[in-house]
Amino acid sequence: GQSIICESGAMAAMDSDLQLDTKMMGGFIPALWRKMVAGESLLSGVYTSKRAGSRLWLSPAIPGAVIAYKMEGQPLLLTSGSFLACDSGIQLGTKFGGLRAMFSGEGMFFIEASGSGTLWFNSYGSVIEKEVDGELIVDTGHVVAWEPTLTWTVTGMGNLFSTLFSGEGLVLKFTGRGKVWLQTRSMSGLAAWLAGYCR
User: Fold this and answer.
1) N or C end of the chain: which has fewer CB within 10 A?
2) pTM of the entire predicted model
3) Quick one: DSSP state of residue 124?
4) What is d(CA 140, CA 130) in angstroms, rounded to the nearest whole number?
5) Spatial contact of 122 and 185, defined as CB atoms under 8 Å apart
6) Tens-place pLDDT, residues 66-96
């Protein structure tokens, strides 16, 4: 009777007794909003077991790690494209990142997961789980998720000249106490590297 909700196209294999349905998480308007502002799929797959021990294998679209995070009422913020799957007790919403986030390469909105159950999210490359107690500055392309106990702002690297010409652009500055999940590779970095071969 357990149900798992996953990103469209994430199923790699499944036992034949699983039932598949599609749904818009939170209804049409919230699902359409996440699609428009956070780049998530409009429809999600819902896999429901008919017996104990049914198995479902999921695979993210990009090569990297998958993290299973146990939620017990505390929210978690994800960058767009990081959501893979969740239990039916978890809800997904959007969080406005500010106008600066639009120029960071990560979009203006982040995904906010809340509720209770297991949340699975994925990275590009390996994941580093970092406990912040004070301040941490991270390139926006390397952030996967973070706990909202941290205060965060999208800011430049020093003065305007440094921001424009250092190659780093905008960064996320975290302050306070909480966890941040970072990915060792960057999709924007890969895209820039490949662009040199596409001319």
Assistant:
1) C
2) 0.78
3) S
4) 15
5) no
6) 999 999 989 999 988 899 999 989 988 877 6
Spans of the chain below 50 pLDDT: 38, 99-105, 163, 165-166
CA–CA separation, 33 and 27 (whole Å): 10
Are 58 and 84 in contact by the 8 Å Cβ rule? The answer is: yes
Best CA proximity match to 37, nearest among 122, 95, 124: 95
Residue with tokens 């596409």: 198
Distances (CA, A) of 150 to 3, 126, 173: 31, 22, 10
Judge whether 7 and 40 are in contact, CB under 8 Å: yes
In this structure, are residues 111 and 95 in contact, taking their beta carbons and an 8 Å threshold? yes
| Residue (of 104, 131, 66) closest to 187 by Cα position | 104
- Token output for 168: 């780093």
